[in-house]
C-alpha cells in the first residue's frame, strides 16, 4: 500500500508540473494557467524551420551564446540604441533567428491567459530544443520557470573562442558548471549542423604561424579542399562545419574531427586532451552511438546555467527590450 501511494504521488507531481530538481520544473506554464505555451512555441518554431532548416543551427547557437553570458536569461535578445548590448558584440553579429523568438512572444501575448506570463529566456530555451527536433535531432527535457535579465552589456561577452586551446575551453566550461564531456558534446558535437565562414578559417589554412603556412593539426588534403572554397581574401563565403552531413543532426562530426578535418582550432584541440579525445574516439572509432543521449543531458545542464528565478529578473513584454 505504501508503494502504491508513493507511485500515485510521483504521477501527481508529474501532472501538476513539480520537479525534484529545484528552481525549474516541467509543466511550469500549466501551473501558471498558460497550458498552451509549449504548443505555441513548437508550432511557430516548426513553421520557421520548415521554410529554412538552417535556422536550427542558428537558434541552437543563440541559446548557447545566451547561457554563456550572464546565464540563460534572454539577455542576448536585448537591443540597445547605442549598439552596446550583447547582440552587438563581434561573436554575436552573425546570430540569426531573433524573429522566431519574437513571433512566439507575440503569439503568446495575444493569448489573454499567457499575457505577461512567459519569459523570453524560457522561449529561447524551448525554441532551441524544438528547432533541433524539427530536423530529426534528439529531444530533451526543458524545465521552465526562468526569468528575464534586465542587463545586456557588450563588455561582458566572453564566449568560448573557435581559436582557443583545450585548456582554455575546459576552464570556460568549468566556470559555468560544465565538465569535459559537456565541452566535447556541446562545443564539437553541436557542429554537426550549421555553417561558418571563410573568414574564421583563413589564417588557419593560409598563414597559421605568419609564414604562409597552414595548421599542421589539420589534414593536408582537407586544407587544399578548403583553399578551393576560400580564396585568400574571401571572408564571407560559407563553409559547412560538417563537410558530409551539415544539415543532418548526427555524430558524424566526431569522425571529421578524428580525421583531423575539424574546421576550428577549438575542435581540433580536443584531440590533445585525454578526456575529450577519449569521447571522440568512442563515437568515431567504436561507434557507441551515445551522442544523442549525451547531447540531451548536456543541454539540460546548459539550460540551468546561472538562471534567474522567483523574484529575480522580470517577464519582458517584448523580448528585445527591458520593461
UniProtKB/TrEMBL annotation:
Transmembrane segments: none annotated. One of its GO terms (cellular component) is plant-type cell wall. It catalyses: 2 a phenolic donor + H2O2 = 2 a phenolic radical donor + 2 H2O. Heme b binds at residue 191. It is found in: Secreted. Ca(2+) 1 binds at residues 66, 69, 71, 73, 75, 86. Residues 23-323 form the Plant heme peroxidase family profile domain. InterPro entries: Haem_peroxidase, Haem_peroxidase_sf, Peroxidase_pln, Peroxidases_AS, Secretory_peroxidase. Its cofactor is heme b; Ca(2+). Keywords: Calcium, Disulfide bond, Glycoprotein, Heme, Hydrogen peroxide, Iron, Metal-binding, Oxidoreductase, Peroxidase, Secreted, Signal. Ca(2+) 2 binds at residues 192, 242, 250. The keyword Metal-binding applies. Residues 1-21 form the signal peptide. The active site is at residue 65. Belongs to the peroxidase family. Classical plant (class III) peroxidase subfamily. This is Peroxidase. It comes from Brassica napus.
Amino acid at each position: 500500500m505504501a508503494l502504491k501511494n508513493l507511485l500515485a504521488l510521483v504521477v501527481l507531481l508529474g501532472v501538476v508540473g513539480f520537479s525534484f530538481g529545484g528552481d525549474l520544473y516541467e509543466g511550469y506554464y500549466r501551473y501558471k494557467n498558460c497550458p498552451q505555451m509549449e504548443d505555441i512555441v513548437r508550432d511557430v518554431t516548426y513553421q520557421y524551420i520548415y521554410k529554412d532548416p538552417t535556422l536550427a543551427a542558428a537558434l541552437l547557437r543563440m541559446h548557447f551564446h545566451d547561457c554563456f553570458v550572464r546565464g540563460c536569461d534572454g539577455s542576448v535578445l536585448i537591443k540597445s540604441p547605442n549598439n552596446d548590448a550583447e547582440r552587438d558584440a563581434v561573436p554575436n553579429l552573425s546570430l540569426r533567428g531573433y524573429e522566431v523568438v519574437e513571433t512566439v512572444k507575440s503569439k503568446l501575448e495575444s493569448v489573454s491567459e499567457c499575457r505577461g506570463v512567459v519569459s523570453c529566456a524560457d522561449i529561447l530555451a524551448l525554441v532551441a530544443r524544438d528547432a533541433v527536433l524539427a530536423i530529426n535531432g534528439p529531444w530533451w527535457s526543458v524545465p521552465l520557470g526562468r526569468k528575464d535579465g534586465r542587463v545586456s552589456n557588450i563588455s561582458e561577452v566572453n564566449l568560448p573562442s573557435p581559436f582557443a586551446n583545450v585548456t582554455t575551453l575546459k576552464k570556460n566550461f568549468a566556470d559555468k558548471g560544465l565538465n569535459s564531456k559537456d565541452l566535447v558534446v556541446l562545443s564539437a558535437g553541436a557542429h554537426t549542423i550549421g555553417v561558418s565562414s571563410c573568414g574564421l578559417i583563413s589564417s588557419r589554412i593560409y598563414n597559421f604561424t605568419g609564414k604562409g603556412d597552414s595548421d599542421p593539426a589539420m589534414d593536408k588534403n582537407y586544407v587544399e579542399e578548403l583553399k578551393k572554397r576560400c580564396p585568400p581574401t574571401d571572408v564571407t563565403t560559407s563553409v559547412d562545419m560538417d563537410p558530409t552531413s551539415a544539415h543532418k543532426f548526427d555524430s558524424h562530426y566526431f569522425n571529421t574531427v578524428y580525421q583531423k578535418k575539424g574546421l576550428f582550432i577549438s575542435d581540433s584541440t580536443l584531440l590533445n586532451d585525454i578526456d575529450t579525445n577519449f569521447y571522440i574516439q568512442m563515437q568515431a572509432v567504436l561507434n557507441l552511438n551515445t551522442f544523442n543521449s549525451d547531447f540531451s543531458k548536456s543541454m539540460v545542464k546548459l539550460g540551468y546555467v546561472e538562471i534567474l528565478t522567483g523574484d529575480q529578473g522580470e517577464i519582458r513584454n517584448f523580448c528585445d527590450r527591458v520593461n
